[in-house]
User: Fold this.
Amino acid sequence: MFESLSDRLTGTLKDLRGKGRLSGADIDATCREIRLALLEADVALPVVRSFIAKIKERAKGAEVSGALNPAQQVVKIVNEELVGILGGETRRIQFAKNPPTVIMLAGLQGSGKTTLAGKLAKWLTGQGHTPLLVACDLQRPGAVSQLKIVGERAGAAVFAPHPGTSIGGGDNELGQSAADPVEVARQGIAEARAKQHDVVIVDTAGRLGIDEELMGQAAGIRDAVQPDEILFVLDAMTGQDAVHTAEAFQAGVGFTGVVLTKLDGDARGGAALSVREITGRPIMFASTGEKLEDFDVFHPDRMASRILG
Ligand code: GDP
Assistant:
């Protein structure tokens, strides 16, 4: 991820190094190169525009000062603005004053929600919490058993409807008896209270594309369990589509934070660089592989340093 963006940005900034002073034309040329590099990396156009405008304004106004030569000053400005579009500070989970803290996961099918549920459970367990995973993805065949497997690996309990239960949901398209995910979510919270789990992670169904039924179901679960955090799970490989998906989830369900998955892939990184600016919501966690330990809190400054090499 970010390899080509990183190469282009560091190359462009390196070209400035020999210069004792930077003219307006030097800054314009540099900004043009940065703009192209960002667009090629699939960063959303409004994000590119505001980023370049800020760099230009700050670079032109920069005083030749102290220890930094002009080229170093531009690098510093680009770094600071990158940290800015990635969210500035790391945003931590807000735990509820009265447990359980309810964390709901939302996102498209295949974005990595179920895997994330296990990762988050393992990470929380490592911090002394006692999470309960609640299986409300009753749409995707195998999602419930997958959650049970990741829960077991993470050492966390899983609450799932018993096979064959039907709580008013009727049969789904697979001919299986379907429970109502909203009811399962409610029961999951009651189970967490009864068994004194201090965090509940609610996995929800995702479709391959955005649809109203999916949004309605997620909104129903949200209203029933009043989550403290709603994490929108975004596959970083999805390129320009990521922005559209994020906006649709923001309008349909709303979320308090973003989890970027598949950052280990070779995507161009535009989703990572756009989602915070477009939605105004912080990127809170990063998932970097299929194993449960391939997961960490998201640090905007570390990501910016990685991009600038
Ligand atoms: P869900 O449909 O949103 O629940 O998605 P899953 O959790 O089932 O993940 C879909 C696929 O992506 C699975 O094959 C996961 O192993 C894989 N996956 C999830 N997160 C990551 C990640 O960070 N990196 C990589 N390389 N694969 C991931």
